Amino acid sequence: MIPPDTFGRLIGHLNEEYIGLPHEPKSLRVAEKTKFGESNVVDLFTKDGFWGGRKGEMNHEG
Predict the structure, then answer these.
(1) Rounded to an integer, what distance in angstroms lies between the CA atom of residue 33 and that of residue 50?
(2) Phi, psi of 39 (to 5 degrees)
(3) What's the distance, CA 25 to chain centroid?
(4) I want to staple 21 with a disulfide (CB 3.0 to 4.6 A). Which of 4, 10, 15, 61 is the partner?
């Protein structure tokens, strides 16, 4: 995972597949969570298709 030059996404990729996670530097503290929703969508693109995750949460563990 690498932070992009633009604010708002963490992007990981392997060959032609990638995942994009919502990213706000001030919220990436240990023991905090990011809740997914319409404004915080996880993007997953594989050879089988494209998905947008809008439910769930991401734990920030150190």
Answers:
(1) 24
(2) -100, -5
(3) 12
(4) 10
Contact 12, 3 (CB under 8 A): no
List the structure tokens of 51: 């998905």
- Cα distance between residue 30 and residue 33, in whole Å: 8
Dihedral-angle region of residue 8 (phi above 0 means left; psi in -120 to 50 means alpha; beta otherwise): left
Q: How far apart are CA 34 and CA 56, in angstroms?
A: 9
Single-letter code of the amino acid located at 53: G
Q: Is the pTM of this model over 0.85?
A: no
**Nearest alpha carbon to residue 44 among 54, 53, 31, 56:** 53
